[in-house]
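Case study B.
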Amino acid sequence: MAEHPYELITHFNLWVFLIPFIPLLGSLFTLIFGKKYLQEKAHQIPVLAIFISFLISLKVLFEVLSGKIFDFDLYTWISASNLKVGLGFLVDPLSIVMTTMVLSLSFLIHVYSIGYMYGDPGYYRFFSYISLFTFSMLMLVLSNNVVQLYLGWEAVGLCSYLLIGFWYEKKSAANAAKKAFIVNRVGDFGFALGVFALFYFTGTLYYHDLFSKLPLLSEKYIDFLGLEVHVPFLIAFLLFCGAMGKSAQVPLHTWLPDAMEGPTPVSALIHAATMVTAGVFMVARLHGLFELSSYAMAMVAFVGAFTCFMAATIAPTRFDIKRIIAYSTMSQLGYMFMACGVGAFAAGIFHLFTHAYFKALLFLGAGSVIHAVHTNDIRQMGGLRKYMPYTFVTFMIGALALAGFPGLSGFFSKDEILAMAYFSQYPWGKLVWVTGLLVAFLTAFYTFRLVFRVFFGEYKGRKDFHPHESPRTMVIPLCLISIGAVFAGWLGVPHSLGGNPVFLNFLESVLGHPKTLPMEHQTEYLLMGLSVMAAFLGILLAWIVYLKRPSLQFWLSQNLPSVYRFLYAKWYFDEVYDLLFVRSTLWTAKWMVTKISDGILIEGIINGTAKLISLAGSGLRTVHSGIVNHYNTFILVGLILYFILYFCLR
Amino acid sequence: MEFLQNNLLSVILWLPLLGALPIFLLGKRFEYTAKCIALFTMLIDFGLSVLLLFSFDFQNPGFQFVEKRLWIDSLNSYYFLGVDGISILFIPLTTLTTLLCITISWDSIKEKVREFYLALLFTNIAIVGTLCALDLLLFYVFWEAMLIPMYLIIGIWGGPRRIYSTLKFFLYTFFGSVFMLIAIIYLFLKFGTFDYTKLLGVPLGGLTEKLLFLGFALAFAIKIPMWPVHTWLPDAHTEAPTAGSVILAGILIKLGAYGFLRFGLPMFPHAAQEFAPLLLLLSVIAIIYGGLACLAQDDLKRLIAYSSVSHMGFVTLGIFAFNPIAMKGAILQMINHGIVTGALFMCVGIVYDRTHSRAISYYGGLASVMPVYATFFMIFTLASIGLPGTNGFIGEFLILLGTFFTNKLLVVFAALGLIIGAGYMLWLYQRVFFERVNPNIEGLAPLRVNEFLSLLPMLVLVFLIGLYPKLFLDYMTTSIEHLLNNLRF
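Model:
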């Protein structure tokens, strides 16, 4: 990063240190004293802690804006031989943007949860976990080395596990929590190997050393089972396995929809805005590595594009309000990876940033709806705009932003990605662009399917109670986040629209400019027009199908039942995995390992030996004949054997 | 004071005997006094072993706190004690484990109380002796002596199938030791000494060295236990009383790995290198095989026992990678495994005392009934699956990272163990603690003070090692360098 006019500060900075550790203290305090002493006041300390932390992060943000970068170790965490890894912090434009985003949302979601979780027996536990999550996420983004990244990476996974399984009495919640952890472990298996390989080839795990040593790898190949493998590709692939797990990309995506078993604020914070974007963050953080191998870039782009499309085809078949939004999250994460895959890392992070706000808004809105009607099933909703005006308006803002309505945050970030893909020098840029455009249409369609079924038409839920607006602690955060959902995109208005993309410029100072063909304003306008059209078509179609001609809803299931079934079954990933990995492993464990190998083979040999010895014992008894001649013979044989052995061993 | 300084190891070693004497002499009515004496003795012993840690000289790669007196003149055998960076950490681990075994058994052992605590104290003596002995004959005596109190602990205070299990345990390990004894006798006959430090430099080679190595290796492999000589372990762990399982898993099985580090590698360097590929392969098999076996268990203790097979696979992998990072990881992982598995066995013992069932299907929803206990169990579970921030991570990370320099393909397979490990531990946790409360366990008593206090030190160590491993890793640095330098020629 030497070419940038930043001032590097390598000594300890208290403010930076306090950002993650204040939430940690809040979490531990609440966990230890919550049950006995705090009870319904358990939210106070965590909320205060996050707020203070947020203010500090703003202070640090201004320091970074004024041209400072912090990179220091708190202490040496692990050292052995030539390995040295610290717990430390790297605060640069990328990490400070993530930090303020995480803290602002975490604060608002903490406040929202005061109302949403009110009266839950695990109230204190909830606030403790969610603060612990905030700490872990901050350790992840602020880390200055790969091992601490891994620490944060697994710690956010743990918090996700604890919060998905928050209502652990429910079997489905406990299953979902376990599934999330294990699927992520599969990704982390690759990630860990990637870290080993990184250390093996570069001898360091600190970012600042890595950035300078990575170019040395560009021409390195190793022999793997007879194949010549390009080292940067190998490392990038292994690390990307972790990203696929954490950011729910195919083929490690199956845990995210199930994760909706957790409380809704958790879905908003962890499974939409922050944790699931860690994969994108990691790819952007190590962009120098990915850019060394065009195969790695292609892999990122294709995985992103495929997930983006697949999730968008599944979302319209769901009836659970949270799962629809979850598939949408998966799809939007796909956009971010597509951006990374065409080298537009800043655009990817920009979308990550805007998406965090509008998607958190949608989830919290959904939470407000669920709070009101006590069901997740959109077939039992309808007409709610009359009962819950604030929720309706804010949800609408989120939906429009997600659909890419001009002027809202999602529009600018999505168009930035599409433009970068279209003009990209990578050969797969056009394909990414087409996918992005198609998915823009699908996104608008399923988002407004949701809006129309939930807020328009007639109320179809239980007649014994009336839906009502949520309490103020929930509505105020909704309003505040919707401000973000509207304006977050304005930090990146492109030049062609007469804006100044300050956000992108800020990030490109560390993430680099994407390699693009010359961009003409006319083409840019055309691209924008196309994507706006796609969005409007999607909304229009949803309007026709779900409000104008409701009978059309069943068109797909009636005319193309096999396609519908395929989509409804989520492309059969769960079934195949269950058969291929879960059942077969359990079968091997039970029969091959425990029953046959341990039970019959090894125990058979051991017990057989024991029997043989006791048989030999009873046989040898006859040797004690008491006849001296016999004994002499034994002595002779023994001596001969001794000499043979002696000469062999000498 | 001067006496203590010069004889610190002997004092730590024999202090429990001093405590055992009054327990032995007291009548049957003084069971409570006997418990108190045992507790007090081990508290002092643990305190002294911490003092040992603080008096250690980090720069010295050789043996420290050395004591050498003639023991058996005719055999030229010495009472020769000493510790270096490889063994020192195990001494406080042993005394702490024994101490916690006393506190965890406080209320649960109701029959033959005095005898039980005597057995625990004698086990402690034998184990510390094994760790300090630098005379092969002395080592062998302690090594075998360890079996006797263990045999009694399982056989007297164990579960329903205790006789079968304890016999199996005894015969299995004894079988291995015999070959080690033959190797020791051969060495004595050839070189006329049992002195470890003198035997280090002796010229061996060829078939002799290989056979001698195998003699030692068989004893150690059974103790660890490596695949495929591991089948004594699930039975012994399962039937042993809580304290028995804790000592077995916590320290006893580490002695096999310690044996490789102390004797197997430095005394027979060529043979060790020759057999290393085989032992690495067996380690990886143990990691995966042990993990898979865990998935098929419905017995809490059996599951944790099989997980030991898997975790010890990581340890032997780290040892035979002959890499300084991996070896550090291996030694640390031995400590970690002692802490975490010991704690997990204590946890199982705590509910077993209340329900008298070890079947996983007997439980369910325990987190609602015993929340504090559930928190402890969760943290040990996380340490067991190597979550960063806990001690398990540091050990596994160093082992795999170091082994990556020796053999990449093996690391890929070994790392699969991380996925399987998460699988069986979280599944176990779900079945025992989550979902609806099983009627069997409604209204179980919360953690008692002695149980809480037994688990707390383990919890502190989990995070202390996980967050500041330097405190422990620094002890090993020079000794490991020294050991590996002697292996390269």
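The first strand of chain A starts at residue 7 and ends at 9. The remaining cases will be described in the next quarterly update.
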